[in-house]
Write a structure and sequence with these properties.
40% of the residues are buried. By secondary structure, the chain is α/β, with parallel strands linked by helices. The chain has seven helices and seven strands, in the order βαβαβαβαβαβααβ. It has one domain (13-250): 3-Layer(aba) Sandwich (Rossmann fold), CATH 3.40.50. Helix 1 (21-32) crosses helix 7. A seven-stranded parallel sheet has the order 3-2-1-4-5-6-7, with helices on both faces. It has helices at residues 21-32, 44-56, 71-85, 108-136, 157-176, 202-214, 226-237; strands at 13-16, 37-41, 61-65, 90-93, 139-144, 182-189, 247-250.
């Protein structure tokens, strides 16, 4: 039977996709809460720079290379992350990749790569980390998904397919791990202001805006900031034992507008 310790003194955390955007914000947020953090991404130089910043502020932080398309890299990351600060208590799977294109126009290799990064790589990392959590009788896994699961968007078929699979995997894990002391939750952000999409050319961006507008998927120009999503992740893994946040959906608030008439009210 697993040994259940509800109050470990230290809760080392690993964050994937930590070189920028949401992942970097999550790493900062967890470090601020006292978690020793391990930052993983392909751009390990950026992770090193952030780890240096965190150490300068008095936090425990390490950077480890991670390529979610490479099984050897995933296994090495899990091993080195545990060696950096001790056995992992928290795993935040945030790394993602999206290339907008219609499903029928997407080369199978391109489609497969997006599924690999967004889904299969996450499962491989779970396989490398979670069994030890089960053995210790505690742990938290937060999977960053996307609101495309709830509101599908055209030109994102591969990404949408992977995120649907990621949420399906999370639901299965929640049932499979119930009673082990390991909690699995999903953080499902809406449109966010990150580096994702900055490599798209103007024609691609215009096509996306036109298509999403045609289907009524752009209601306003608000966007989440990385820190907004990070706070949700930190809240999820920081819940006291006995509470399990299975899903947090976070959307950008529409910019406030001055009203001259309140619907249903007096003119």
């Amino acid at each position: 039977m697993p040994r259940f310790d509800p109050h470990p003194d230290r809760r080392p955390a690993a964050v994937t996709g930590a070189s920028s955007g949401i992942g970097a914000a999550v790493a900062r947020g967890l470090a601020a809460e006292g978690h020793p953090v391990v930052l993983g991404a392909r751009r390990v130089d950026r992770c090193e720079a952030l780890a240096d910043e965190l150490r300068a502020e008095g936090h425990e932080a390490a950077a480890v290379p991670l390529d979610l398309t490479d099984d050897v890299s995933i296994a090495s990351f899990a091993e080195r992350a545990a060696a950096a600060h001790g056995p992992l208590e928290v795993l935040v799977s945030n790394a993602g990749d999206v290339w907008p294109q219609a499903v029928h126009a997407t080369a199978p290799a391109t489609f497969a790569r997006q599924v690999q990064v967004n889904l299969l790589g996450a499962q491989a990392l779970v396989h490398a980390v979670v069994p030890a959590m089960v053995d210790r009788g505690r742990g938290d896994v937060a999977l960053v998904t996307s609101d495309v699961v709830r509101a599908p968007r055209p030109l994102m078929g591969a990404y949408l397919t992977a995120k649907h699979g990621l949420e399906g995997m999370a639901r299965a894990m929640q049932m499979e791990l119930e009673g082990t002391g390991v909690r699995v939750g999903m953080v499902r952000p809406g449109p966010s202001s990150t580096e994702q999409g900055t490599g798209w050319d103007d024609d691609t961006v215009n096509e996306i805006v036109d298509e999403w507008s045609r289907w009524g998927l752009i209601r306003h120009d608000g966007a989440l900031r990385p820190d907004d999503v990070a706070r949700a992740v930190v809240a999820m893994v920081g819940q006291p034992r006995g509470t399990h946040l299975t899903l947090i959906e976070i959307e950008p608030e529409a910019p406030a507008a001055r009203r001259t008439h309140v619907p249903g009210g007096s003119p």
